[in-house]
Specification:
With about 210 residues, the protein is mainly β. The protein has 2 domains: about 5-120, no CATH class; about 155-205, no CATH class. It has 2 helices and 5 strands. It has helices spanning about 5-10, 105-120, and strands spanning about 15-25, 30-35, 50-60, 70-80, 90-95. Strands 1, 2, 3, 4 and 5 form a 5-stranded mixed beta sheet that branches. Strand 1 (about 15-25) and strand 2 form a beta hairpin. It is flat. It starts with a helix and ends in an 89-residue tail after the last helix.
């Protein structure tokens, strides 16, 4: 079978030689190749070179794109008999380094696919989110749900003097203390906390 030397060099698939290039009815380029490596007829079981052909088969391993478009490879290869008595392989099919046995893609196509997976991604990067357990302090810092945190003041117990009024003397010489919302406490000064709108309202009233 005649080989196209120029097409073989241009195609560059080691171990295979180009015999013809054509387009099918859909316009897809088809490259017909045959085995050009003489070691492909060596039995992988015993290492003896085979001399008797069993049959010829055609496989279609996927390969790189050429000329900006997809190319279909048609490899016409032979299946050999192994006549060695002690060999368990009675027959085998030709294989080359670029297309090992039972491979559906060429080695150079697999290398390209691995290189694309390892290539770092470029472009916009997503901002890192804070850890859910990180503390956010301050009334203007947004919370996890997008709302604003509010600073709350604990309601003092009845009859105690809050730290807010430490050293403060109400009219009449009385010290303010925590009282009820309806009126003054025992000291005559009431401190109320309105829970309705979640805000601390401190009121100082004279008895």
């Amino acid at each position: 079978m005649d080989h196209d030397t120029h097409a073989t060099v241009l195609f560059g698939l080691e171990g295979l030689a180009v015999t013809a290039v054509r387009r099918d009815e859909a316009g897809l380029r088809q490259v017909e190749v045959v085995t050009a490596d003489d070691t492909a007829r060596v039995c992988p079981g015993c290492g003896v070179r085979a001399t008797r052909v069993k049959q010829t088969v055609v496989t279609r391993p996927r390969d790189l794109a050429h000329g900006g478009g997809r190319v279909q490879v048609l490899w016409r290869k032979r299946r050999w008999f192994c006549d060695q008595p002690g060999c368990r392989r009675k027959s085998f099919t030709e294989q080359v380094g670029q297309v090992p046995a039972r491979a559906r893609t060429t080695a150079r196509l697999r290398r390209q696919a691995r290189g694309r997976r390892r290539r770092p991604r470029t472009g916009r990067t997503r901002p890192s989110r804070p850890h859910p357990g990180a503390a956010r302090i301050g009334p203007d810092r947004p919370s996890e749900r997008g709302t604003k945190r509010r600073t709350t003041i604990a309601r003092p117990r009845r009859g105690t003097v809050p730290k807010l009024f430490a050293g403060v003397v109400a009219p009449g010489g009385r010290t303010p203390c925590a009282g009820s919302t309806s009126g003054a406490g025992s000291t005559g000064v009431a401190i109320t906390a309105n829970r309705r709108d979640r805000r601390a309202v401190v009121a100082l009233a004279a008895a």
